[in-house]
Amino acid sequence: MTATHIPSASTGSVSSASGPSAPARRYAGASVARRLLVAGAVSAPLWAVSALTQAATRDGFDITRHPLSVLSNGSLGWLQITTFVVVGVLAMAGALGMRRALRGTPGGVWVPRLLLVNGIAMIAAGVFVMDPADGFPAGTPEGTPASLSGASIGHMAAGSVAFFSLIAANYVLVRHFRRAGRSAEAVLSLVAGTALLLGNGWAMAGGTAGTLTLAVGALTAMLWVSAVAARASRGV
Predict the structure, then answer these.
(1) CA–CA separation, 57 and 228 (whole Å)
(2) What ranges does the record give for the region Disordered, renumbered to this chain (predicted)?
């Protein structure tokens, strides 16, 4: 008597039952990383558009006298507070994307960590609002307050952490790009980090138009990191 052959389950069915294949998992991981990097790429342009639009349109604000952070005050202060928080969340997402994009490369550990700290500090800077000062919002006495509130101290501490982590991230990117033989990107990373370092230092020293140099330095460093994230999103 001829035995009857009973077909076994196909290899594909077994694979499907046990979960996605390795290539499928890699593709899914790359897709998530790409979205995270795009979020990081959007963060700095969003900050620039929101903060500079407010700086140009809000009554009594003078970017050569007032830091952008003081925009968190007044009836429209919620706009800048929201900008801080949203941009911080996007920066954190970008940091997680950079962890995958830079994995196994020089700076691949510290760049994501520093950018994550930067994002967290941005959120904190939104939660803690800087005191009104030097005529802004309209009706505020000229000059700096005689004493600082706890919220203002918290804001300045968060801002310092945000700035120095961003400076450090740009300097680590210098090493990353140098080791990769990408000298132009290394130079741009150095310029971006130094622009913020000098801009912040000039502002802290009470230099003329220090708030403007700080704004320029911060935007330069932020926009460069966003550009790096945008380029990385095309390669994951």
Answers:
(1) 30
(2) 1-21
Please give the span between the terminal C-alpha atoms of the chain, in angstroms, as a whole number: 59
Question: C-alpha 45: how far from its chain's center?
Answer: 10
- In the block, which residue shows the tokens 């969003």? 46
Report pLDDT digits (tens) over 45-81. Answer: 999 999 999 999 999 999 999 999 999 999 999 999 9
Residues in the chain: 236
Beta bridge partners of 133: 136
Q: How many CB atoms lie within 10 A of CB 11?
A: 8
The answer to whether 115 and 95 are in contact (CB under 8 A) is yes
Chain centroid to Cα 201, Å, comes to 20
Q: Is there a domain that residue 181 lies in?
A: yes
Assigned domain for 179 exists: yes
Token digits of residue 56: 């140009």
Does some domain include residue 183? yes
Residue 58 carries which side chain, given as an amino acid letter?
R
Give how many domains the chain has, as a whole number: 1
User: Do the domain assignments include residue 23?
Assistant: no
Domain enclosing residue 219, as ranges: 38-233
**CA dihedral (43, 67, 51, 150) positive or negative:** positive
